[in-house]
Input
Amino acid sequence: MTVQRNRIITALSAAVLMIGIAGAAYAQASGSLVSAALAEGSVGEQADGYLGLRGQASGALRAEVDAINIKRRAAYTSLAAQRGVTVKDVAATVGCETLASRVAAGRAYQLPDGVWRVKSGPITLPAYCAS
Amino acid sequence: MNEIVLTDVRSRATSGVMKRIAPFFLAATVAACGGCVQVQAPDKPIEINLNVNIKQEVVLSLKKDAADLITSNPELFPK
Output
């Protein structure tokens, strides 16, 4: 009897733990920290089509950025498969688009040279970005 | 013993041809070595240029798809 009860308690606590982890993952995926970090310039768009951390970042912010980038990669991968190109090609094209039209003034961005800059005026896009 | 026999056979079969071709081999080797030494420095920039050329075409063809991807997944592209 006690063995069975112990097993039930173990199973229940495992289930609670799983729900807790899923909840935390969901909260991270919602991306509230990322929006704030974008506004203050500690996170920015990169020419490679992904979000990047500029300098040191908390674990929670890093987790949100990673979660978004994983989803982006999944979206890039399916588009690349549809068009018969590499994931990198799709990602670079998205990078061109985000740098051209989705980075607001005062926000951070990174070109292929790896240097973070803050937008003040139009961004000089990489040469491969078709105008 | 074996080696001597083999050398004999080889030299008998190709000695005439070898004598005529040898200068060309020498010239080709010298040219190749000269080329190698000169090519090594600009090797990398040439590669980058090729990549950029290939990408530009692909990027142009994917531009609309990329814009659609961004607008249809706003949660992946927070502002």
Notes: The longest strand of chain A covers residues 43-46. The radius of gyration of chain A is 20 Å. Chain A touches chain B at residues 31, 34-35, 38, 68, 71-72, 75-76, 79, 83, 85, 89-90, 92-94, 96-98, 102, 104, 127-130 (CB under 8 Å).
